[in-house]
Write a structure and sequence with these properties.
Chain lengths: 261, 314, 286
C-alpha cells in the first residue's frame, strides 16, 4: 500500500539513500478561492524519474509551475540541492539547474529553431554560456538529440505539432538542467514517436539528469517512472512504485469514478 | 575589411563632410534628420529588440534638454558637463520609474510611457529653476557645424551600440523577451534587469539628443523639450525602416524625413495629411519595414504586399 | 464647504462629458482590441459637424447631435471596413500606428477645411445658469451631463437587450465562440467601431458647446479617453461614465487647490498609478 507524504527514499528505491535533489513540503497554491494544489509533499533523489499523473485539472501543471518559479506558492516550501528556493524568481531557478517544458508550448516564433534552443544554452545553468557561438554549438547538439537538426534554420512558427514538442524539449535540454520538468511532451504523438521520446528520456536520465514527467500516456509513464505521484483535485493521493500505485483503489477511483457495488 | 564596412565608413565620412561642402540649410536639415534618426535608434533598443513599444521616450529627450539647460544656465557649467547632467537625469528617471512601468505589457506599457511623459512635462512647467512655462534661455553658440557633427557622432555611437546588442548575449536575451517573455524568464533570462537596462540605454541616448537640441536651439520650454510629436515620429521611423534591425531606424528616419520634406515643398498644407496616408499604407503593406521589404520583394515581387495584407486582415 | 460642493458639482458635470468621450474608445478597445489613437480626431469632427449645423443651418446643438452621430457612424464604419480590417490580426503596434496615421490625416484635413480658428457653439442659453441651494448650475454643462448619461444608458441597454448588442458582447468576449454561433465579425466590427465614433461625435458636439472646437483638440482628448476607459473598465458604459466623473472631479480639484497647469500632471499621474496598481482588471480584458 502506498501512502502519501512518505519519507524520501523509502518507497521502491533501489539506490542507496542519498540526499534528495529536490524536495517539496506541504506545498499549497490557492487562486482566489480555488485550491489548485494542496499540501503536496515529496522528494526526488538524483537520477530518478518521478511520474506525475492524475485526471485533468488535478493540479499537475500548477505543481510544475510552482517548482519552476512561474507561480509563487501560497504555503509550503521547495528545497533544491539543500537550499530553499520558493522565494526565488524563475530565472534564478533556471541558473540553479531547473528546466521545464510547457504543455501549451512557448517557442520564440520569429527566431530560427537554432536560435530558439541557443537561448537555453545562453542563459541556462550557472547563467549559461557567455559566447553566442559556443551556445549555438551546444544548441546543435540538443537539436541532434531531439531529431530537429535538419530544421535548425527554419522559423519556429513554421514547425508542425510534433516538431514543436521536440523544440520545446530541445530548448529545455540546452539549459543543461539538473532537474528537468516535462509537461505532457507526448501528447498528440503516435506510437512510434512515443517510443522515441521514451528512449530519449531514458538516455537523458542515464546522463545524470533527474526528471519529473507529467503524462497521460499510461504505458509510457509506467515504463519510465521509478516512482509515481498521483494528484487529484490538487491533493496527493498516492506516491510509490508504479505497479502499486496503479492498483491503489483511490487512484482507480479518481480516474474511473466510484465503483458501483 | 569587408565591403559592407567600407560602405558604412564611406557613408559616415560623406555625412561628416556635409558642413564643409553643403549649404547652411542642408546643415540645419541634417541636424534635425540626424537627431531624429538617433532617437529612432534609441527607441529601437527598447521597442525593436525588446518588444516594449514606448510612446513616451520624449520624456528622456526632455530631461536631457532640461538637465543640460539647467546645468548651463543655473549652474554655469560647460556644455559637456551639461550633457552629462542631462543623461544622468534621464537615466535616473528610467531607473526609478522603469521598474513598475516595465511590468506592464503591450498597450498598457505604451500608455504608461505616454502618461509619464505628460506628467513630467506638467511637473517641469511648474518648477521655478526650470523656468516654468516661460522656459530657459541657454548661452548662445554660433556654429551649426558643431551641432551637426555632434548629432552625427550620437547617431554613429547609438548605432554601434545597437550593432553590439545585435551580436551579444544581452541582445539575445532582449530578443527572447520580445518573442516570448514567459519562456525567456523560465529559461534563465533576468527579464526585469534586462528590460531596465534597455530602457536606461534608450534613455541615455535620447537624453544626449535632447541636450544637443537644447544648446542648438538656445531656448527650451516644456512644449518644445517634451515634444510629443517626436514620440510617434521615432516609432514610425523605426517601424517604417525595420524594427529590430541595426540599420532600420536610420533608413526609416532618413527616408521619412526626405518624404515629408518633399511633400511639404510640393503640397504645403496637405503635406501632413499625405504623411499620415504614407504611414497607414506602410503599416498595412510592409509591416516589417523597409529592411524586410528588400528581402520580401526579392522573393515574391509585388505579391509581398498583397500577402501582408492577406495575412493580417480580418 | 460651499466651495468644495461647487467644485464637486463642476467636476461631476464635466466628468460626465469626459465619460461620454471615453465611451466610444472603451467600446472599440473592448470589442475590437484596437486602441484608437484617432479617437480624438473623431471627437473633433463631431464638434465641427454640430458647429456647422448650428452656425450654418441654425439647428440647436442638442438637436444636431443625432445628425452628427449618424455622420460619424458612417465615417467610422467605412474606416473600419476598408482600413482597419486590413490589419485586424496584426500586432497591436500596427493598430496603434495605423490609427495614428488616420489621426494625422483627419486632423490635417480638418485644418485644411476649417482653418485653425477656435470655434464656439453659442446657443442663446449657453451662458445661463440656475441656482440650486447656493450652488451655480450652468445650464449647458447640465445638458451635456444629462445627454452623456442618456447615451451611456442607451448603450448599456443596447448591449444588454438587443440581439445585435449581445452579438457585440459575445464577439468581445470570445471571437471563436461567437463565430461558431453564426456571428459574423465582418459585420460586427465595423458596426461597433461606427457606434464608437458616433459616441465620439456626440461628445465632440457637446464639447463644442461647453468649450471650443479646433482641429488640434483631439490629442489631449484621446489621452484623457485612455485614462477614463481604463478606469471605467473598457466596455462597461456606466463604469466609464463613473471613470469620467472621477477624472472630472480630480481636475476640478486641482484647478482650485493647486494650479490649472497641474491638470495634465494629475490626469497622467492617475493613469500611471492605475496601470501600475490595478493590473488585474485590465488583464481580464487582454
Amino acid at each position: 500500500m502506498s501512502t502519501p507524504g512518505s519519507a524520501p527514499g523509502s518507497e521502491g528505491e533501489q539506490r542507496p539513500a542519498s540526499a534528495p535533489l529536490f524536495e517539496v513540503r506541504a506545498l499549497t497554491k490557492r487562486f482566489r478561492g480555488l485550491v489548485a494544489v494542496s499540501q503536496v509533499s515529496f522528494s526526488v533523489a538524483p537520477g530518478q524519474i518521478l511520474g506525475l499523473i492524475g485526471p485533468n485539472g488535478a493540479g499537475k501543471t500548477t505543481l510544475v509551475s510552482l517548482i519552476s518559479g512561474t507561480l509563487a506558492p501560497t504555503l509550503g516550501e521547495i528545497h533544491f540541492e539543500g537550499r530553499r528556493i520558493d522565494h526565488l524568481p524563475a530565472y534564478r531557478r533556471a541558473h540553479l539547474g531547473i528546466g521545464r517544458t510547457f504543455q501549451v508550448m512557448k517557442p520564440f516564433p520569429g527566431l530560427s529553431v537554432l536560435d530558439n534552443v541557443a537561448v537555453g544554452a545562453l542563459f541556462g545553468i550557472a547563467g549559461g554560456e557567455r559566447e553566442r557561438s559556443r551556445a549555438r554549438d551546444r544548441a546543435r547538439q540538443c537539436l541532434e538529440l531531439t531529431g530537429l537538426d535538419h530544421r535548425q534554420d527554419q522559423r519556429a512558427d513554421a514547425l508542425g505539432g510534433p516538431d514543436r514538442k521536440r523544440l520545446e524539449l530541445a530548448k529545455a535540454l540546452a539549459m543543461q538542467p539538473k532537474l528537468l520538468l516535462l509537461d505532457e511532451v507526448m501528447a498528440g504523438l503516435n506510437a512510434v514517436e512515443i517510443d522515441e521520446v521514451v528512449a530519449l528520456i531514458k538516455k537523458i536520465r542515464d546522463r545524470g539528469m533527474t526528471i519529473l514527467v507529467i503524462e497521460h500516456v499510461m504505458k509510457a509513464i509506467r515504463t519510465l517512472s521509478d516512482r509515481l505521484l498521483v494528484l487529484h483535485h490538487g491533493q496527493q493521493i498516492a506516491l510509490g512504485a508504479p505497479d502499486e500505485v496503479l492498483r491503489d483503489p483511490q487512484v482507480v477511483e479518481a480516474y474511473l469514478g466510484k465503483r458501483r457495488t | 575589411m569587408t565591403t559592407g564596412r567600407w560602405l558604412v565608413i564611406s557613408c559616415v565620412a560623406a555625412l561628416a563632410a556635409v558642413p564643409l561642402l553643403g549649404s547652411a540649410t542642408m546643415v540645419q536639415y541634417g541636424i534635425s534628420a540626424l537627431s531624429i534618426a538617433a532617437l529612432a535608434q534609441a527607441w529601437n533598443i527598447l521597442g525593436g529588440y525588446t518588444g516594449y513599444a514606448s510612446f513616451g521616450n520624449s520624456v528622456f529627450y526632455g530631461l536631457g534638454a532640461y538637465g543640460t539647460a539647467i546645468a548651463m544656465v543655473d549652474g554655469h557649467q560647460s556644455f559637456g558637463v551639461g550633457l552629462g547632467c542631462g543623461v544622468a537625469l534621464a537615466v535616473a528617471c528610467a531607473w526609478l520609474f522603469g521598474g513598475p512601468i516595465l511590468r506592464l505589457r503591450g498597450p498598457y506599457f505604451a500608455i504608461a510611457t505616454l502618461g509619464l511623459s505628460g506628467a513630467m512635462s506638467a511637473v517641469v512647467s511648474n518648477l521655478g529653476f526650470a523656468g516654468k512655462n516661460v522656459g530657459l534661455i541657454l548661452p548662445l553658440y554660433r556654429g551649426d557645424e558643431l551641432f551637426y557633427e555632434l548629432s552625427l557622432a550620437l547617431l554613429v555611437l547609438c548605432t554601434l551600440a545597437v550593432a553590439w546588442i545585435a551580436r551579444s548575449r544581452f541582445g539575445a536575451g532582449l530578443v527572447a523577451i520580445r518573442e516570448n517573455e514567459d519562456a525567456a524568464l523560465v529559461m534563465g533570462v533576468n527579464t526585469p534587469r534586462y528590460k531596465a537596462l534597455a530602457l536606461m540605454l534608450a534613455a541615455g541616448f535620447s537624453a544626449v539628443a535632447g541636450g544637443i537640441h537644447a544648446y542648438w536651439s538656445t531656448f527650451i520650454d516644456p512644449a518644445s523639450a517634451f515634444d510629443s510629436t517626436l514620440n510617434v515620429k521615432m516609432v514610425i521611423m523605426t517601424v517604417f525602416g525595420g524594427p529590430g534591425t541595426v540599420l532600420g531606424p536610420i533608413v526609416g528616419a532618413f527616408s521619412l524625413s526626405a518624404i515629408s520634406e518633399l511633400l511639404a515643398s510640393q503640397l504645403s498644407t496637405m503635406a501632413s495629411a499625405f504623411y499620415g496616408l504614407v504611414i497607414v499604407l506602410a503599416v498595412v503593406f510592409m509591416p516589417g519595414g523597409l529592411m524586410e521589404l528588400g528581402r520580401g520583394f526579392r522573393r515574391g515581387g509585388r505579391h509581398y504586399f498583397l500577402d501582408n495584407m492577406r495575412r493580417f486582415r480580418l | 464647504m460651499h466651495l468644495a460642493a461647487q467644485i464637486l458639482l463642476n467636476g461631476i458635470l464635466l466628468g460626465g462629458l469626459y465619460g461620454l468621450m471615453a465611451l466610444g474608445m472603451g467600446l472599440v478597445w473592448g470589442v475590437l482590441n484596437i486602441v484608437n489613437l484617432a479617437h480624438g480626431a473623431f471627437i473633433m469632427l463631431g464638434g465641427y459637424a454640430v458647429y456647422y449645423c448650428y452656425a450654418g443651418l441654425g439647428i440647436d446643438p442638442f438637436a444636431a447631435l443625432p445628425i452628427a452621430m449618424v455622420g460619424l457612424f458612417c465615417l467610422g464604419y467605412l474606416v473600419q471596413r476598408f482600413v482597419l480590417s486590413l490589419i485586424a490580426r496584426a500586432a497591436l503596434l500596427s493598430t496603434l500606428l495605423v490609427t495614428f496615421g488616420i489621426d494625422v490625416v483627419l486632423t490635417y484635413l480638418a485644418l485644411f477645411a476649417f482653418s485653425a480658428d477656435f470655434r464656439t457653439i453659442n446657443p442663446s442659453y449657453a451662458g445661463d445658469h440656475f441656482d440650486l441651494g447656493g450652488l451655480t448650475v450652468p445650464l449647458a454643462q447640465l445638458g451635456a451631463f444629462a445627454t452623456a448619461l442618456v447615451l451611456a444608458g442607451g448603450l448599456r441597454m443596447f448591449l444588454a437587450r438587443t440581439r445585435t448588442g449581445r452579438a457585440i458582447r459575445a464577439t468581445a468576449q470570445n471571437l471563436t465562440a461567437a463565430r461558431l454561433h453564426g456571428i459574423n465579425p465582418r459585420r460586427i466590427y465595423p458596426l461597433s467601431f461606427g457606434i464608437g465614433t458616433a459616441l465620439a461625435g456626440a461628445a465632440g458636439g457637446l464639447y463644442g458647446v461647453v468649450s471650443q472646437v479646433t482641429p488640434y483638440m483631439g490629442n489631449t482628448l484621446t489621452a484623457k479617453s485612455f485614462v477614463i476607459a481604463i478606469l471605467g473598465g473598457l466596455d462597461r458604459p456606466l463604469g466609464v461614465i463613473a471613470g469620467g466623473v472621477a477624472l472630472g472631479i480630480a481636475e476640478a480639484t486641482t484647478d482650485i487647490y493647486l494650479d490649472p497647469t497641474y491638470r495634465n500632471a494629475i490626469g497622467f499621474g492617475m493613469l500611471v498609478g492605475i496601470l501600475v496598481l490595478r493590473p488585474t482588471r485590465l488583464f481580464e480584458r487582454a
